Amino acid sequence: MAGEPVQIFEGKQKLLSGLGWRENPFVKDLRQQDREGFLKYHCPLDGEKIVERLAFDAKAVLLVGPKGVGKTSAIYYTKYSLPAGEFDSAIIKEPPSTLDGLAEELGVGNRPSVLGGLFAPIAGALGIARREKGISRAEIAERLKRRERKLVAFVDEAHLAPNPQMYMEFKYLLDEVPQLRMVFCGLDRSPFPDSLMHLIGENNVFARKGFSAPEMKRIIGHRISAVGGSGTHPFSDGALDEVLTEQNLLTPRYVFDELNNRLAKMASGRIDPKEESSRLSVNDPIVQAAIADVNGRNGNGAAAMGAQAFGKITHAHADWWVMLSPSQQKVMELLLEGGGLTLSEVCKRAGLSQNTAFNALYQLRGDDGKELERKKEVPFPLVEARAKLVGGRKKNLYYASEKVRNLFTTT
User: Fold this and answer.
1) CA distances, 101 to each of 93, 135, 154 (Å)
2) Are 277 and 236 in contact (CB under 8 A)?
3) Which of 179, 207, 235 is the last residue of a domain?
4) Among 54, 61, 117, 342, which one is least packed by beta carbons within 10 Å?
């Protein structure tokens, strides 16, 4: 047992060396700390769109989406991509509540005078309250107009403004200062008043609610190329089909966790890297051509595929089987053979990560609306859950739906 940690680290180094990777590409989260490293690892997507808008003189841009979709990364990509001779930038972590706070964030706030600083302790000792004069919008605008370069103010968490009036102050400043540009990022657009939205313009509003599979593959390939790899090797299309579930496509973080889990299994010998890189996707044209050929020859392609997938179970009446993802097929195979399995048992027996198994069960239960839309021929729900007390705690046991089970026969 004492040697196991050393072995896994040695296995990791051996794996990375064999892949030609300088380091693991799925752990980098570089932002302001390392400009060159960030630009190397980050696949821009939304950042490219924001840079394009700013290059062609958009006054303001809005990027909305849930946490984890890369809004803050888009801010840093844009900041790092601005020509230094033309732009300055200021990153505001969340909207300030006052004009004084905004002025400080933009670098044009009131600085205390030398005399004021000298007399402050005396006034405090005498109990004399020192009243500070707040800065006005006109003063902020005048100071910004004196700048030689354009200023891009990035406002992150823009939906959190403690003082809603600040949204109008943003709008007024954008109207009054030709050199000012603003990029807002937030969960949604609902806090923004109509007048500010009108100034931004619909063409400059971008919504990111998740990623498509091609977008995520582009991100994966970009990361791998950054460390010396090529394409998505060692992850085949078949392996990525299992990883790129509807849930995981919400954020690259989920996908990176899955890929790191697979890399760890390769390093420990639980997954053969050669097998992983050669697996065919159910959607692969070669696979589809083979299915079509079988259908053409005997009219029973689904049954032939089923016999291969299940061994002793055929499914001549389930021609939709080939539409299921590999992880969905694995789960269905287990439940058709017995059923009454907990999530952990499904993970162990199917060789799937908890996240992948959970997503497969979620989809097989018919709870994923997009999956239902994509696969209309599949008679969801294919799986049902029954709650049971196990060790004093309620757990779900999963079974193949009875109406589906009747489609399959044992040979």
Assistant:
1) 12, 9, 15
2) yes
3) 207
4) 117
